[in-house]
Amino acid sequence: MKNSGGSELVSQLSNYGVDTVFGMPGVHTLAFFEPLAKSAIRHIGARHEQGAGFMADGYARATGKPGVCLIISGPGVTNAATPIGQAYSDSIAVLAITSAIARDDMGLGRGMLHEITNQQAVTAPITGFSATALTGRQIGEHLARAMASFQTQRPRPAHISIPLDVLDEETATGSARKSLPRRPGPNPIDIEAAARLIREARRPVVLAGGGCRDAAAQLTRLVEMLQSPVITTIAGKGVVPESHPLSLGSTLQRASIRRLVEAEADLLLAIGTEISEPDLYVTADSEAAAEGLVIADPTRLAISGKLVRIDIDPAATVRDYTPDAAIVADAGLAADALIAELRGQPPASDAANWDLDAIRRRLKRDVSPLERKHMAVLGAVRAALPADALVYADMTQIAYTGCVYFPVDVASTWHFPVGYGTLGYALPASIGGAIGAPGRACIALVGDGGLLFTVQELATAVEQKLPLPIILWDNDGLGEIADFMRARNIPEVSVRPYNPQFKALAEAFGCLATVPQSLDDITREVRHALRADRPTVIIVRQDSEFLR
Ligand SMILES: Cc1ncc(C[n+]2csc(CCOP(=O)(O)OP(=O)(O)O)c2C)c(N)n1
Ligand SMILES: [Mg+2]
């Protein structure tokens, strides 16, 4: 049999260890499916390419391997653009492989089926690279580049377009690069400079971001050596266990922590974080919180102490702030190098310089009545979950509270679409997570507005027989936007949309569905759902009697 472009792709993916792809077939991708059927790679069919992209994202987060989606040209690409954009802002290794119109038709605007005159350009701004394989040989070249970039750099999604004629054309068999390099370590001169500053600090604070996801043990050792409080961004939630005596959790959004970072720390050690805008939305103060207002415009940190930044992405070490020392390296390798450097001459910083218990008490006090409701529900959910459970959360108010107050002790378990902030993430991403890590508890946490963005993927979850609890926070509308409108005295517009009967909807898809009547009920239902042979939609109404 001839080695077509389609066969070449499938055999290369297999050689890189890809065993699962998410997608939606079409006439343009038939050339993928012929070899795929003969391979060991399983194809998980989604109900929309947006779902397939989020599933690939959720799979990548659960497994640490690239998440692959396989979709058609044109509308497949534009439908997948949103999850690709999300993976870009959250640094997730998503590989989108799509067909494209034939080489001879490119750029002419001939009205071919699924035509985009410049498909590669559609995903260029939301990928590390978007490339078109102009020959069969280039399929392997672009794949090698994608795999190497996932493993060595800040992971960004990649998009490889393969023209129809290249998919069908005979091509030589290429080889997958088996020995890919790993992420680079730090320059010793930079480590020395950073260590000098750290030794001089009395009250250093560590801010750890999503770049530390694979460096939990090293980060924890570093923090213990510095005896410094550690705060994480949302993407970094759990990289040091939040129950650790030095952890202040993912709390940068709280005014008291903001003050601590800005004014009380004499050195901020920021590792694997952009210190990006979504992490800087701040609860104004406890009085405003008591009124239910938890929104303040994000402003940059006004750092008064020294700043040391460590990042794999050179741009992130110098952006927005002027660091006193900057290190370009993998977070874990840099932490190890700092520990080794400081061991000879340990720093004088001491956790006793902080009253961490008082800070924690204040964090617990500074919550609005609505956040208290969220916390009660989140506590009931947490009680049903093992420490390593995967939680995929959507853009809903209960998840915003969860970003701060859902206790997380294991890195890479709280997954929230932080940067791009797209609705509809949680359900399909949790499907990808459940498929990637079948032995682990996995849940989705979603609002009534967000669920309707990707609700059709309930069918995928049923088909895959996933024991997936989907906790639906139902407040009859777009609660967050309604609050923003109210805060600006705008009359409510389109924030109280008509909703379906969610229980009937879930059951129509073949899910189990339940409306808990108490917090204990929630815990029980989540436990039950984790043992079921299909997904369970657990509807928690904000106006529930038991949350009054
Ligand atoms: C794709 C997309 N469109 C619009 C928004 C703006 N947005 C952010 S939160 C939100 C409300 C979501 O409603 P729901 O899921 O019910 O959550 P709630 O705020 O009510 O808890 C909207 C519309 C968004 N984040 N993403
Ligand atoms: Mg809502």
Describe the structure.
There is one protein chain. The chain is α/β, with parallel strands linked by helices. It contains 22 helices and 17 strands. The chain has helices at residues 5-15, 30-38, 49-63, 75-90, 119-123, 136-152, 164-168, 188-200, 216-226, 255-264, 286-290, 314-318, 331-343, 356-365, 369-382, 397-405, 426-436, 448-454, 457-463, 479-487, 502-509, 519-530, and strands at 20-23, 42-45, 67-71, 94-100, 129-132, 158-163, 204-208, 230-232, 267-271, 306-311, 325-328, 390-393, 414-415, 442-447, 469-474, 512-514, 536-541. The strands form three sheets. The protein has a six-stranded parallel β-sheet, sandwiched between helices. α16 (397-405) links the parallel β12 and β13 (414-415). α1 packs across α2, α3 (49-63) runs parallel beside α4 and α8 packs across α13. Thiamine diphosphate binds next to α18 and α20.
Number of distinct helices:
22
Biggest β-sheet: strands ordered side by side in the sheet: 2-1-3-4-6-5
End-to-end CA span: 68 Å
**What is the mean pLDDT?**
95
Rough shape? globular
- Global structural class: alpha/beta
Low-confidence spans: pLDDT under 50, at least 5 residues?
A: none
- Helix proportion range: 40-55%
Radius of gyration: 24 Å
- Ligand identities: thiamine diphosphate, magnesium ion
The count of strands amounts to 17
DSSP strand content? 5-15%
Give a short account of the largest sheet: 6 strands, parallel
